[in-house]
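Database export, one record per block. Field names are fixed; values are copied verbatim from the stored entry.
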Amino acid sequence: MKLLLTSNGFTDSSIEQAFLEMTNNRTDLKVAIIPTASDPIEWVPEKEGSKEYVPRLIPERKEKNAGWLNNYKGEWEEKGFDVVIADLKEEPEKIKEKLESVDVIDVTGGDVNYLLDWAKKSKLDTYLKDLLGRGVVYVGTSAGSGLLVPDIGLTWWETDMSMDHVGFGIVDFIVIPHQKESDERTNVENLTKRKKHLQSVINFPWKVYLLQDGQAIKVIGDNIEHIGSGAKKFI
């Protein structure tokens, strides 16, 4: 299995090098971009007075997001890769057909809760691990990295919440992207408190890697390496 779980993409030379290692420096490969997490959404009450929230697409941001995706696709193509878009809102069989034809799956950043919801609706959770076991390289950015972990709820989930927090569990660790000591939500002290809190109410045994921007977790087989610039932290 070859996984490159980044905080904010190919923003450090060591991350670029790790990808080249995973692909044997080849660019004559086919890449599927899964951009679903980047959909411009906001969470709104399911109905007036409800504590349940649902995602709502923001139409006025759609054009800007489409422009970003077109540019991002172009960056892959400029390097020589053949690129397809596999939006998880498409028909599940169509998505599966696309993903079974590629060498690299690139899952972009955005809203991890929204991504997880569509990943399960599309049945991606039923076959992604098999694809990766066959040698397909997985590249994740932020939310895309978080999709593979066993639990996405470290920073926000509480026992009275119904929102799904159970990730794919393809890896047996947690990643926190964009970690900053200046961010109250993601500094080491508060994340340590959150981990202890969750361990008191649910089974939460996993190591947590704190990814600053410019960092990634590189997984090749059983080997796990925290790469990139800056201090390498975990709890």
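Remark 1: Residues 224 and 234 are 13 Å apart (CA to CA).
Remark 2: The first strand starts at residue 2 and ends at 6.
End of record.
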